[in-house]
Amino acid sequence: MLFRRRPKAISREQSLASVPLRNEAIGVEHSDDGFVRLVIPLRASWWARLISKAFYVPKTRKITLDEIGSYVWGLCDGKRSVRSIIKALCKRYNLHRKEAEVSVVAYLRQLAKKGIIGIAVLKPQEKTANPR
Amino acid sequence: MAGSQSWSRIGWHGIALDVPEDWCPGRIEGDYANGYLRVEDELSVRLELRWETARRRLPSATQLVDNYVKQTRKKTRRKAGEPEVDRGRSVPQLAAVDHEAFTWRGGFSAHSLLLVDAPSRRVVHLRVFFEEGKERRKLARHIFASVRTSSEDGLDQWGAFGLLFNVGSSWRLEQSALRTGCLQFVFHSGGDELEIVRLSLAEITLRKAPLDKWLESFFAKALRSFRYTLSEDEHHGHPAVRCEGIQRLRARPLGFFRRRRHVSALAWHCELSDKIFAVRMISNRPGDPHVDAYATSIACH
């Protein structure tokens, strides 16, 4: 921990140009009301394996996203940048740009922290090659 | 260019100005006396607004610009070459206020306006930034011409992120927040409290609960110590809910010596913008007329 290198801070432009990518290991289902349900496989630790011999331990965890969460999940296709997701959300739900930015960034950060998505940050020289 | 531009108005602590629609506040600090507001477009900082209350004698705008140019020249000379400063400009729309507009060109260009507002004893410094070769004078001129530092009819204009409203100049901002889909302002004046809220994604919110239930749950903490009634109403042609109430007796320690407080609130759903707007006030007056006056000043669509 002491010698762990801190990740370099990225600029605002880089963070908006970054591309969210879905974790391939996560399964996707649709709930009855059309919302996205994520099926997350649980890592079985030795004590979980031991307990599972006597009790039922689920192998997956399911998270149902709400309407906006499902819509943003649909946009995380590995091609769209954070900026274009914000724009799409503004257009669909009649939101102010900053309002949408606050929500989308917080939501994607939460998904990334849980390992549900990854964020591909482009190097500054790659920026021009990335279509918005 | 500035003619075809669409604008939005930003108002903060009695200072109001127009900015292009895609510019919005990125950082806000301070209070009425001293503060800072930064406005950004999608990529970078576009405008900076600083205000400061003069402690002693109110200096003139020319003196302040002299001082500013001298100080900034000293700093920049070490880093880069001699910057080009174009001074002595005035803005016809601000003729009644002591001011000076000037342009600073170095690695970028900064169009500045420094004005001294005598009634509030505040010095306001506004800077609009452009990258080298991308200068838009008309745009800067429009922003400068739109600056207002004094209240009209005792009302201050407040505005950010597309929400614009007027409140009495005696109200001081206590708290403001932009959370997911919710923009909230809380003001205090004496012992009175005013809260103005704009909630986006109204259709989704109202699918879970009707407007009256939303009002009760959103203001649950504030309404806890009041006995209130809700009634259906109409505002700006939209369905609205009105709340009137009086403080519960048990919520008042030493109740015999203090007046009972009143709560008034109005919430309406604008279908056109898909937003819920709400104004809530706690004061000593039953059915405070200010609630309606402030709610009327909000242009919801």
Helix content of chain A: 40-55%
Q: How many domains of chain A? A: 1
Spatial strand order of the main sheet of chain B = 3-4-5-9-8-7-6
- H/E element order of chain A: HEEEHEHHHE
Give the C-alpha Rg of chain A.
18 Å
Architecture per CATH nomenclature, i.e. the level-2 architecture of chain A: Alpha-Beta Complex
Please give the most extensive interface between any two protein chains, plus how many residues each contributes.
Answer: A-B, 16 and 18 residues
* Oligomer class: heterodimer
* CATH-defined fold name of the largest domain in chain B: Protein Transport Mog1p, Chain A
Q: What number is the mean pLDDT of chain B? A: 90
Give the CA-CA distance, first to last residue of chain A: 37 Å
What structural class do you assign from the helix and strand content of chain B? alpha+beta
Please state how the strands of the largest beta sheet of chain A are arranged side by side. 2-3-4
Shape, per Cα inertia axes of chain B: elongated
How many domains would you count in the coordinates of chain B? 2
Based on the model shown, name its key terms:
heterodimer, A: 132 residues, alpha+beta, Outer Surface Protein A, domain 3, 3-stranded antiparallel sheet, two-stranded antiparallel ribbon, 5 helices, 17% strand, disordered C terminus, B: 301 residues, Protein Transport Mog1p, Chain A, 7-stranded antiparallel sheet
In terms of topology, how is this protein built?
The complex is a heterodimer of chains A (132) and B (301).
Chain A (H helix, E strand, L loop, with lengths): L11 H6 L1 E4 L4 E4 L5 E6 L4 H9 L5 E5 L2 H9 L6 H12 L3 H17 L3 E4 L12
Helix pairs in contact in A: 4-5
Chain B lengths: L6 E6 L2 E6 L3 E7 L4 E6 L4 E9 L7 H19 L4 E6 L8 E8 L2 E10 L4 E10 L5 H9 L9 E6 L2 E6 L3 E8 L2 E8 L2 E8 L2 H7 L2 H8 L1 H4 L2 E10 L2 E10 L14 E9 L4 E9 L5 H8 L5
Antiparallel strand pairs in B: 1-2, 3-4, 4-5, 5-9, 6-7, 7-8, 8-9, 10-11, 12-13, 13-14, 14-18, 15-16, 16-17, 17-18
